[in-house]
Structure formats: structure tokens, C-alpha cells
Specification:
Immunoglobulin-like
């Protein structure tokens, strides 16, 4: 599988999540990134700059949070529950995933 690193931006807070996504041997640039909060459906994240993607919520984000990546060629992968309950701004979280 692919080793993907999610670095939570220092400006993230309970209502705002920004992550720098790093992965080796990826399938080119990402065309879409989505997150799924606990017991909630998938929601699109916005590209902030380069490999940084953000999501703003009117209410507190419900962790654990899964992140779905879509490559430029349309391949998808899901890092299930990669952002854990009790996550912290400035921390780095890793996941080993496979494209499907």
C-alpha cells in the first residue's frame, strides 16, 4: 500500500481542518479530496495551496475523520479514520492505503 502522511495545519481548530497531504508513488496530482466525519456523509474539501486542502464547518468536527483522495486519473483511496478523536493542530497522522 501507499504510505500517506496528513500534516494538520497549525491554524486548524474544532471547526476548521487544513491538512498537507504527502504521499510517495502517488498517481499524479489530486483532483479531489473529501472528508467523512463520524456518522456523517462525505464532504468536499477545498484546495488551499499546493497539497494543502481545507474544510470549514459551522459546527464542531466529529472525529475520527476519514479522508478520500481522488487522483487526476480518477483513482480513489480512502484513509479510514486517519484523523483520530482528540486530534491536534500541528500533529502528523499516517495511513497505509491502497487504490480501489
Amino acid at each position: 500500500g501507499l504510505d500517506i502522511v496528513f500534516k494538520v495545519d497549525a491554524c486548524s481548530n474544532p471547526n476548521y481542518l487544513a491538512v498537507l497531504i504527502e504521499y510517495e508513488a502517488g498517481d499524479g496530482d489530486l483532483s479531489a479530496v473529501e472528508l467523512q466525519q463520524r456518522d456523517i456523509g462525505w464532504a468536499s474539501m477545498q484546495e488551499l495551496s499546493g497539497a494543502v486542502w481545507k474544510y470549514s464547518s459551522r459546527s464542531t468536527l466529529q472525529a475520527p475523520i476519514s479522508i478520500r483522495l481522488t487522483s487526476g486519473s480518477g483513482k480513489q483511496l480512502i484513509a479510514s479514520n486517519v484523523i483520530p478523536s482528540g486530534w491536534q493542530a500541528g500533529r502528523t497522522y499516517r495511513s497505509i492505503v491502497n487504490y480501489y
